[in-house]
Amino acid sequence: MSTNGPVIFIICADPAITRGCIREVISTGGQYQLRLAGSAEQARQIFPRTRPAAIFLDESAVYSEQRGDTLCSVIPLLTEFAPVVVAAAPERQFEMASLAASGEVDFVARTEPFLPVVAGLLERRLRSADAPAEHLIAFPGEEPGGDFGEILRHEVNNPLTGILGNAELLLARRNRLPAATVTRLETIAELAVRLRETVRRLSNAWEARNDHVRSA
To answer: Domain holding 87: CATH number?
Structure first.
């Protein structure tokens, strides 16, 4: 575990999953700092002192009868700090769809082997964050439509999340696949990440332009 590099927060109340996630992240070979928290609330208290570059959230760290916390209520509070890779029961994928469409959340079904998928997504998140934007995004001069950014996120990010998640599931079994297949899957995953980042920048730039037009 490195003492330098970007910080990955592992938010999980299950010790076995926490240990497995640490092992998988280390196996990627990246120079990351790993920080642990047993609940989303505990992590948010630490973030101002140690800001994360990426977050893994296991559903075991969320649900609280006393506080009424749910994945949908907690995740937006975490994405204020960094992108979130969330692992939850497969049946929760539908309720996560709108969050995944934001481009700040990756959903991983909590079925074995899911931790290699989590580690792969965290690594790709950090790599895409380090990649410089190649050019500024320009828009045509017509009056902007206010809902374009939201439409773009929903219509493009939803299928991209499925493409990336399925590619990572297959890559988790790379030792059983031919080398050429692994290479193609890596290419699919990399291109999906690049497209998602482009969508995020387009959407943010469009919304910023709308805000400027409204305030003018």
So the answer is: 3.40.50.2300
